[in-house]
Amino acid sequence: MLYQWGDVDTKYISHSTRKSFMSALYCKYVNDGSIDINATMADLGIDDIPALTDQEKTATIGHCLQSVSGVYHTAEAESDFMHNLKPDQDTYLPGTFWIYNNWDFNVLKTIFEQETEKNFYEALKNDIMDPIGANFQLSDSISWTPTRSIHPAYMFRISATDMSKFGQLMLDKGNWQGNQLIPQVGWRKAQSMVGMQKFMMGTDTDICGGWLPMKMPVPICQTVTCPLDPIRRGEQEDSGWRLSLKGIWYLYTLLTLT
Fold it and tell me: Which of 87, 133, 173, 213 is deepest in the core (most CB within 10 A)?
């Protein structure tokens, strides 16, 4: 740590940054064969209320990790503005169109827990948080009662100090003090990028195939976290970590191309 300012140990609610942690967590379980990223929603028995269409059920885990599932169902932790940006159902085939989609991000928790038979928060604590020395407790997890989709969002509280540790873990390509916490799995994203994905991700990366493209640090400058300024925004109750154009402070990670 070269410089710090303010109370860096205060915990704030994670918003979009939660998706970076989910992406990192998936790496281990794809690597050991617990999760098959080529499995479709139909293969996994994944559905929603109202039901997914036959086309939507052809979306794979890999599509959800890249936010290109083509499933435009309403989602938890999604504003009306976000939902209204989504195309109509079946407008695009899975894997052909990128849009920031909380349904994709949220269903990954359902799939993770189904396929690994592990609680997401417990796995996050055991596989990542504890090994990097983060002050993360299971009580920092935030329960969510679904009202718009059967797949809940997964929030938790985390401090600037612990976010920086996670950022350092990603800078070191998943290695923490000689311990490879996040396997550099062989799966890579499609060579033909779509929509904003090409802009955000560049052309190639080894770390987990570039899943959750707006969240995963890759060999270009990427925004990892952004704590909101509650005073400036007048939203004390909504202060937290998220990727947002309204944010005031940013933590960047850069990886050197080699």
Answer: 213
